[in-house]
Specification:
- The chain is α+β, with helices and mostly antiparallel strands and about 350 residues long.
- The chain has a domain at about 60-150.
- The chain has 8 helices and 15 strands.
- The protein has a 6-stranded antiparallel sheet with strand order 10-15-11-12-13-14.
- The longest helix is centred in the middle third of the chain and has 12 residues, at about 220-230.
- GO terms for molecular function: cysteine-type peptidase activity.
């Protein structure tokens, strides 16, 4: 597979409102879709499917592990999930197909849409006006969600520019080569990709490095998708302010969000979770992959759910593929079975 090439450096500019645009992925909303691809395979745990008989009208139910509220339709099917302490919500909507044929044959056909609420969920929030207003707008919406944002940075993704002419989406690389010409530089954040200086809520301003233009490492990719695009608060580093920290380890150990699968076992390698059924699309996945990082978790990914072969898959930015991918180089993007990434998976968080 040929390596991706870097693009020329763009001069810094102020951050402006992002233009709306269609996502880069194979995106189908056709009446005959179910005749062409396997049925939608939503990732839900046993508790979600165990209750909520047909009532003829929508109903709310409280579930545990993690504590959450689910909204069921009149037939008892879950149409939305809201986890206590998390701002991300998973809503049912039109079926979509996410594919990256240049790197993998894996496809994800899903009716899950992952969106951010204006406030963290708490028990009874369905009665609050802020939620009613948000849900009225979000339910059934086909505006770009977290998954749509994520696929706007894979190989071959078209460039999208804001009103200042700054490309805010398009094929991203992981990072430039180190002097050895083999390994790649890490610590490539969203402002490096954009080529702009960025002032965080803490007041810290960070300046992009020209050689890292259009580059996103694994955590920088998540910060681009969740922070710059979806507007989840971002920290300038792992210590100051509030929001999503800078590194994979910082994210995994942060109080931000909800720990869905907690880190267990002795450091520095910890242990693989025994049960991953609790995961839902949109969760952040954390991996321990490198002995050089001591007890730090050193990779983060976005969980997509089940692919059309029934495997639990994710998308992340990786050195081997030089950028965001759900492809196979360096290890198949699965956390089930006994593959490379499955064996190194350690914990998960819901923002």
């Amino acid at each position: 597979m040929p390596k991706r090439k870097s693009r020329p450096v763009l001069h810094a500019a102020t951050v402006m409102a992002l233009l709306a645009g269609s996502a880069y992925f194979t995106y189908e909303l056709r009446k005959d879709e179910q005749a062409k691809v396997p049925a939608v395979q939503s990732v839900t745990d046993g508790l979600q499917n165990s209750g909520g008989g047909a009532t003829g009208k929508e109903s709310w139910e409280r579930l545990n592990n993690p504590a959450r509220s689910v909204l069921r339709d009149g037939k008892g099917a879950v149409i939305a999930t809201f986890t206590d302490g998390a701002r991300s919500a998973t809503l049912k909507g039109p079926s979509r197909t996410f594919a990256e044929p240049v790197n993998t044959s894996s496809r994800v056909v899903t009716d899950d849409w992952v969106r951010l609420m204006p406030e963290p969920w708490i028990k009874g929030a369905e009665k609050e006006q802020w939620f009613k207003d948000w849900f009225k707008e979000a339910s059934g919406s086909e505006e770009d969600d977290i998954f749509a944002f994520a696929f706007q940075y894979v190989e071959g993704a078209p460039i999208k520019k804001d009103s200042e002419g700054i490309p805010y989406a398009g094929d991203a690389v992981f990072g430039p080569f180190k002097e050895d010409g083999v390994d790649r530089l890490e610590q490539n954040d969203f402002y490096d990709y954009l080529g702009i200086s960025y002032t965080f809520r803490s007041g810290t301003t960070l300046v992009p490095r020209k050689e890292r233009y259009r580059a996103l490492d694994c955590s920088g990719y998540m910060r681009m998708v969740w922070g710059y695009r979806a507007r989840f608060p971002l920290m300038a580093d792992n210590a100051s302010g509030d929001g999503l920290p800078r590194s994979a380890d910082g994210m995994a150990r942060s109080k931000t969000g909800v720990d869905i699968i907690k880190l267990q076992g002795p450091s520095p390698w910890y242990t693989r979770p025994k049960n991953i059924d609790v995961l839902q699309p949109g969760d952040l996945l954390f991996f321990k992959m490198d002995h050089r990082t001591a007890n730090h978790l050193d990779h983060v990914a976005l969980y997509l759910g089940l692919d059309t072969e029934g495997h639990r898959v994710f998308i992340s930015s990786r050195k081997e593929q030089n950028g965001p991918t759900m492809g196979d180089a360096g290890g198949v993007s699965r956390i089930d079975g006994n593959g490379f990434y499955a064996g190194l998976f350690r914990s998960a968080k819901r923002l």
